[in-house]
């Protein structure tokens, strides 16, 4: 068999695929949007407030020949999510790839933790993933295909001590289980649902902690991983392109870990 006949190189090709990325204006979501576009996908970027940054990114994608547009929507708001899906449907009539990346962290001791912060964390990190998956999932069921990738976390698998992130950790553990449930329910519709569970990744979200607690970062974040460092957003891109592509055609319900070995010990 010749190399050409096996066609392995094109398994990762996403040319013309329609992708929705929530929280695609910055950090991990932005890198994932860029990676999908670099592999040929058209990308809709969903953001709550950083519309200007998302518009600038969509301009870059369009200049490179992709179809790209921005949707301002709060993933935790059912009406916003319905409108978001209608915009995608009106523009493309389908959606091949959904990246549920939007997420927040609101730290605090459990004994003092405001119930409002608990609810807000669950609303964005868990309800938001359910709502967006449901709205886009209906389109995927109609077309009988699709790949959904939920951005979970190693915090959904272990307690990232000494941080006090109970709400965040529980939301990400829930996201991992939701991934498995949707993978099971929607396999018969040709939809694959997987999660990515990153370790500590350098973004604006983690930069804030880094500024405030450099000692904690040095002693716990980097040292926790067997690779002895934190990761970059670019180090997640390959996994997401893989999970989105035909190369992962037999992979569903997987919690794909990219954490430099943080959860090994
Ligand atoms: P950032 O805070 O840098 O970016 C978060 C993105 O999500 C922004 O684009 C933000 O848009 C968007 N967003 C937040 N809330 C909403 C909402 N309600 N509706 C729509 N969009 C929203 O985070 P990171 O890039 O660091 O993290 C991205 C994902 O990766 C999160 O789910 C996080 O939990 C997860 N993760 C991060 C790790 C890390 O070390 N950085 C490790 C493991 C997982 P806007 O500003 O417009 O609100």
Automatic annotation (TrEMBL):
Pfam families: adh_short_C2. SUPFAM superfamilies: NAD(P)-binding Rossmann-fold domains (SSF51735). Residues 17-157 form the Ketoreductase domain. Keywords: Oxidoreductase. Belongs to the short-chain dehydrogenases/reductases (SDR) family. This is NAD(P)-dependent dehydrogenase (Short-subunit alcohol dehydrogenase family). It comes from Kaistia geumhonensis. The lineage of its organism: Bacteria, Pseudomonadati, Pseudomonadota, Alphaproteobacteria, Hyphomicrobiales.
